[in-house]
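S-acyltransferase, pasting as requested.
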Amino acid sequence: MAKRVYQVWRGSNKFIFNGRLIFGPDARSLIVTLLLIIVPVVIFCTLVARNLLHKFPAYNAGYAILVVVIVFTIYVLVLLFFTSARDPGIVPRNTHPPEEAYESSASVEVGERQTPTLQFPRTKEVLVNGFSVKVKYCETCMLYRPPRCSHCSICNNCVERFDHHCPWVGQCVGMRNYRFFFLFVSSATLLCIFVFSMSALYIKFLMGDYGTVWKAMKESPASVVLMVYCFISLWFVGGLTGFHLYLIGTNQTTYENFRYRVDDRLNVYNQGCLNNFLEVFCTKVKPSQNNFRAYVQEEAPRPPFRPSREEVDNSDGDRRAKVEDDLEIGDDLLKISQRRNFEELEHIRSRGSDGLPRDSSEAEFDLGSGQQAPTIQSEARHSSWGRRSGSLELSPEILAMNSSVTESRKYRSQKEEIR
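Structure tokens follow.
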């Protein structure tokens, strides 16, 4: 059965639901991320928000706190799903080097054979916004990376507008999921702020009932734990949100900021703060270049070598000439064999019982009435067909006949000398 693309994928990604969802190789870290989000929210809803329902009697405003935290948590989880379960912008890898590699190929001696080796420039220049930018060749994916593309060593893929690989979402962050990643981080920051604020508000209500902060904290330790947890989390997600706001405003990626910060390079992608934000949040997300559920299409085999019509005609001409030569040789052998057999028959008939020699015409008549001539002819032709690589191979019958004729001639010559 034909396999699908996700089944033969060379990257380190993990697929579920028959290739409909794609994750990074460290997708198990998503479980930790989910627990860090869901567990604090459950504690808040059961131990804090439930006690605030009756603190705002007007219009039942206390229920709004519970609804807001649940809806906002679902929104954060959806953004996490869009960030980690979709193609971040993977560039399809090639099955062979680009065509320009073959144009400048050289030969390297390996043993006694000459094997071609690919030699071509590892970088080339392309124009971006009127400026020349160098792009590198990826030996793993066998392609020249597009501008702002980089190869992720964890996922083993080239990703367009590669930002970084985030272990908390278990996926690369690139062109197709950067928007959702930023919204996830910023929404998680707002969720932390909301939970921290409502927990602090509940402590304030308890202070009015018990008089001191310590008694209020003893009355609701869950609120204290949530406040500490949210405060620590804000240093991470809040700081990450601020850092990415700076990157979006200057149109940089995390990879470019850490790698080229010291080089003081000109940022050719910066189009102004407003346009940079519009590019990230108001442009249509490009469709994926990979159809992971498609069936793998085998490459068409190279057409076999077919000689031209002139070569076929020449080979046919050589074959015909060889057959004609064999036939001519066979005819010559036939004539030689017939002549020698005529002489032998004449000699044998002359030695008959009556001792009277017989006429050569009678011998010819006897020969014509018998079946020897066709046999000799077929044997002669068969011997000509046995010719191989320019040498003539005679059948054993012809060789035996020739030897008998030679011996009879020697016997006749000796008999004449005795007489």
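Note for the archive: The first strand starts at residue 14 and ends at 16.
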